[in-house]
């Protein structure tokens, strides 16, 4: 629904159920210095099974699993996403999940698959 407003530019998506302790200015600046792709924000949590969880190898996220029974890390995906202009093409490629919804984790995993 935001494609019209993005107007072919990169976008920042912030889910409405977040409380942000600090600002995201540094993450936005880092994203602007990337050649493209996406950036997600993570936070260590004591109960990762309640969230989308990042699997990390070195300094890279190599996968995201939505509400896993056994989490591969304790890094939850916060719900703040920075995407380049290809995000809407990726969204159009999605298939509904078992819950019948398009999942943001699937969008993020498409970016991960692209490196």
Q: What would your notes on this structure say?
A:
- There is one protein chain.
- The chain is of the alpha+beta class.
- The chain is built from four helices and five strands.
- The protein has helices spanning 3-6, 25-32, 87-93, 104-113, and strands at 11-14, 38-44, 52-57, 60-66, 75-83.
- The strands form two sheets. The chain has a three-stranded antiparallel beta sheet, covered by helices on one side. Strands 3-4 form a two-stranded antiparallel ribbon.
- A hairpin with a 2-residue loop joins strand 3 (52-57) and strand 4 (60-66).
- The radius of gyration is 14 Å and the shape is globular.
- The chain starts with a helix and ends with a helix.
- The model has no long low-confidence stretch (mean pLDDT 93).
| Main sheet overview | 3 strands, antiparallel
Which consecutive residue ranges, at least 5 long each, have pLDDT under 50?
Answer: none
Strand order of the largest sheet: 1-5-2
Helix-strand pattern: HEHEEEEHH
- Specify Rg, calculated over alpha carbons: 14 Å
Structural class: alpha+beta
Helical stretch count?
A: 4
* Beta-strand share of residues: 25-35%
Distance between the termini: 26 Å
- Overall form: globular
The pLDDT mean sits at: 93
Helix content: 25-40%
Short description:
Helix content is 25%, strand content 29%. With 115 residues, it is α+β, with helices and mostly antiparallel strands.
What are the SSEs and their pairings?
Elements: H1 3-6, E1 11-14, H2 25-32, E2 38-44, E3 52-57, E4 60-66, E5 75-83, H3 87-93, H4 104-113
Antiparallel strand pairs: 1-5, 2-5, 3-4
């Amino acid at each position: 629904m935001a494609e019209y407003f993005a107007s072919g530019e990169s976008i920042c998506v912030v889910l409405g159920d977040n409380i942000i302790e600090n600002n995201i200015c540094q993450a936005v600046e880092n994203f602007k210095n990337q050649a493209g792709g996406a950036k997600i924000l993570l936070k260590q949590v004591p109960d990762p099974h309640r969230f989308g969880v990042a699997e990390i190898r070195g300094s890279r996220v190599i996968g995201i699993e939505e509400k896993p029974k056994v989490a591969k890390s304790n890094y939850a995906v916060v719900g703040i996403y920075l995407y380049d202009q290809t995000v809407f093409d990726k969204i159009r490629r999605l298939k509904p999940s078992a819950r019948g919804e398009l999942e943001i984790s699937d969008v993020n995993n498409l970016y991960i698959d692209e490196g």
